Amino acid sequence: METIDIIQPKNLVYKKPDLMNDNDMHYCPGCSHGVVHKLVAEVIEEMGLADKAVGISPVGCAVFIYNYIDIDWQEAAHGRAPALATAIKRLWPDRLVFTYQGDGDLACIGTAETIHALNRGENITIIFINNAIYGMTGGQMAPTTLLGMPTATCPTGRQADIHGYPLKITEIAAHLQGTAYVTRQSVHTVAAIRKAKKAIRKAFENSMENKGSNLVEIVSTCSSGWKMTPAESNKWMEENMFPFYPLGDMKDSSKDNK
């Protein structure tokens, strides 16, 4: 049989960001974290801020971002990343300071720190990975778990009369006076990945220009916690998560001022 070499044009070959090290990714197949890590690294590189970037990693699956992107990192207690980010940015106002948090960390134990940092207009960016479940600790119900969605702690599905309603942090943030840019994106397709990257860049630029606080939510999958294959998770997210957590910008003060 004849062998044909397939040569890919150079401009289509993926180049790993220089800021990402060679550590093997430990995330489950289909997890959104790895894709978002790549976007964060690319944006920091392209902005030329590798030496001025300080990331805050909390507790949960999101904590491991420090193991893959070679910038300065601080680890915060569970939910306290926005408070730590506030201190760092106020001490070093010339730095790019951002947090990288999951929904259990940000929207549950860290609700107070998140809301008040955003409302104060701290010049930081909060990157919020929302997969509607506690991924690291066994798939328990999170504040963002959808009604009817089964988890380890609500195996028959979340019920409003017992567990309350899912918390829409991004919609709340959009109504706060201190926020400059609030958006909800995803990374389930190439087009979505491009939009998410632009959103992260805009948030980082706002932070460096002292325009106020920024929140970038990424609606994500958790194949292990959802007990689905990666393909099934993507489909389930599109059919169930997106209607409740619609994608797009919720607030953009740069447009509001025009």
From TrEMBL:
- Which Pfam families does UniProt cross-reference here? TPP_enzyme_C (PF02775)
EC number per UniProt: 1.2.7.3
Q: What class of enzyme is it?
A: oxidoreductase
Q: Known InterPro entries for this protein?
A: 2-oxoacid:Fd_oxidoreductase, THDP-binding, TPP_enzyme_TPP-bd
Q: Which UniProt keywords apply?
A: Oxidoreductase
From the record, give the transmembrane residue ranges: none
Q: Does the keyword Oxidoreductase apply?
A: yes
**UniProt xrefs under PANTHER family:** 2-OXOGLUTARATE OXIDOREDUCTASE SUBUNIT KORB-RELATED, SUBUNIT OF PYRUVATE:FLAVODOXIN OXIDOREDUCTASE
Query: Any idea what this protein is called?
Result: 2-oxoglutarate synthase
